[in-house]
């Protein structure tokens, strides 16, 4: 047992080290790419390009002897020194263009950081749901007749969950299970989950297709097949349908021109013999 634990610890250490190395390499490659673009945009000759790249490398924050990152004051001082060196390498016209490029880059960084703070604020105010995410969810939930407490809906990396009552708004909590998995937000649309279908009642969704238990299409649906339902009545002529059997929910489907596209969970589908 001790050997297994030790092996696992070593594997985790190696994995984290490899991951850090990969991130470092990616960051280095991105930085070199940006510098090469600046060299091209500024129209530097061979000697200028060499000196410019060396100066730009000096701008990177290096750790001190105590393996600590430099202070804000130290970084500002270093930046001024490097800027003076770059100014001596470039012509007046090139230096002016260089300053314009840096201003644009800084503006982009500030805009990205501001958006990140805004999204985080919205998540904090609405149990982890930004305005854009909520708009996508509301478009789907307009067809859900069940009562929904929006404060209990949380979106994590595109996956929407309905939190247990009483934990909404709590920060820095680690869940074994986040709650009811509602579905996934994919760009501007919402894909409901199998779990969500199973907790709904037929009357709680605006449009449903209800098969009799003896209908052969039930087995075809369970196998993951597309089925013709043009003979059955439903609330909407197209879009998401709650598929039921004798009034009990079975899964989801999407109706297009009388044909039900199968959205039954792939892991639950019946296997075809032979």
Helices and strands, with pairings:
Elements: H1 2-42, H2 46-58, H3 72-89, H4 92-125, H5 131-141, E1 153-156, E2 159-162, E3 180-186, E4 189-192, H6 194-199, E5 208-211, H7 216-222, E6 227-228, E7 239-245, E8 248-256, E9 259-262
Parallel strand pairs: 5-7
Antiparallel strand pairs: 1-2, 2-3, 3-4, 6-9, 7-8, 8-9
Helix pairs in contact: 2-3
Note the beta-strand portion: 15-25%
The helix/strand series, from N terminus to C terminus, equals: HHHHHEEEEHEHEEEE
The tally of helices reads: 7
**Roughly what is the average pLDDT, rounded to an integer?**
82
Terminal residue distance: 43 Å
Largest sheet: 5 strands, mixed
Overall 3D form? elongated
Give a count of the beta strands, DSSP E runs of length 2 or more. 9
Structural class, by secondary structure, is: alpha+beta
Proportion of residues in helical segments: 40-55%
Rg computed from alpha carbons, rounded to a whole number of angstroms? 28 Å
Q: Report low-confidence residues grouped into runs of 5 or more.
A: 1-23
Strand order of the largest sheet: 5-7-8-9-6
Kindly describe this structure.
By secondary structure, the protein is an alpha+beta fold. Among the domains are: 67 residues, no CATH class; 67 residues, Roll (Archaeosine Trna-guanine Transglycosylase, Chain: A, domain 4). 47% of the residues lie in helices and 16% in strands. The strands form two sheets. Strands 5-7-8-9-6 form a five-stranded mixed sheet. The chain has a four-stranded antiparallel sheet with strand order 1-2-3-4. β1 and β2 form a beta hairpin. α2 packs antiparallel against α3. The longest helix has 41 residues. 16% of the residues are buried.
């Amino acid at each position: 047992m001790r050997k297994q634990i030790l092996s696992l610890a070593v594997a985790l250490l190696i994995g984290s080290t490899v991951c850090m190395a990969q991130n470092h390499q990616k960051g280095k490659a991105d930085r070199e790419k940006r510098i090469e673009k600046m060299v091209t945009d500024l129209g530097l000759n061979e000697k200028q390009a060499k000196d410019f790249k060396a100066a730009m490398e000096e701008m990177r924050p290096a750790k001190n002897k105590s393996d600590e990152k430099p202070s804000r004051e130290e970084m500002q001082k270093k930046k001024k020194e490097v800027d003076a060196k770059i100014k001596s390498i470039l012509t007046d016209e090139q230096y002016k263009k260089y300053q314009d490029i840096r201003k644009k880059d800084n503006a982009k960084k500030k805009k990205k950081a501001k958006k990140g703070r805004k999204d985080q604020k919205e998540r904090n105010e609405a149990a982890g749901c930004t305005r854009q995410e909520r708009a996508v969810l509301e478009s789907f939930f307009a067809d859900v007749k069940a009562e929904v407490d929006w404060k209990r809906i949380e979106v994590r990396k595109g996956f929407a969950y309905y939190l247990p009552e009483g934990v909404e708004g709590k920060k820095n909590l680690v869940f074994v299970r986040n709650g009811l998995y509602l579905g996934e937000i994919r760009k501007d649309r919402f894909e409901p989950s199998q779990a969500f279908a199973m907790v709904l009642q037929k009357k709680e969704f605006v449009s449903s297709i209800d098969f009799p238990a003896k209908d052969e299409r039930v087995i075809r649906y369970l196998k993951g097949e597309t089925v013709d339902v043009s003979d059955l009545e439903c609330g909407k002529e197209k879009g998401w349908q709650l598929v039921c059997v004798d009034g009990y929910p079975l899964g989801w489907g999407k109706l297009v021109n009388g044909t039900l596209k199968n959205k039954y969970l792939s892991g639950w589908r019946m296997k075809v013999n032979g």
